[in-house]
Design brief:
With about 110 residues, this protein is an alpha/beta fold. It has helices at about 10-20, 90-100, and strands at about 25-30, 35, 40-45, 50-55, 65-75, 80-85, 100. The protein has one domain (about 10-100): PH-domain like (Roll). This is Phosphoribosylpyrophosphate synthetase.
Length: about 110
């Protein structure tokens, strides 16, 4: 019998990332830019890089998938943004992220 692999919940990953200085929460605005939640700062795709990302799958349903992006901006701002993964993804966020420089992981790769 195979051992069940314990998946790390998003809240645990966020706690670790906050301790590493990724304290901002980002969102994509209707005009297609990344902004801080308070909308005091805005970034285009050329001003952001993906440092890492994590995929999460729901315990009861594979449809409950999410992705957490770890981002750094050209100005030094560090934070995260999350999205549903797969068919429920936010199209504007997905389009923005495809334009952002990825520092190692292939976002188009499907498992």
């Amino acid at each position: 019998m195979e051992d069940k692999v314990e998946l790390t919940p998003m809240v645990s990953v966020l706690k670790d990332l906050r301790a590493e200085g990724y304290t901002l929460d980002f969102k994509v605005t209707p005009d297609g830019r990344l902004s801080t939640m308070d909308e005091k700062e805005y970034y285009g795709p050329d001003e952001v890089q993906i440092v890492n990302f994590y995929r999460f799958e729901g315990e009861s349903s594979p449809d409950d998938m999410a992705i957490l992006y770890v981002l750094e901006t050209r100005s030094g701002a560090k934070g995260t943004i999350s999205d549903a993964y797969g068919p429920y993804a936010d199209e504007s966020l997905e389009n923005f992220m495809k334009q952002v420089k990825d520092l190692g992981k292939n976002l188009d790769k499907r498992i």
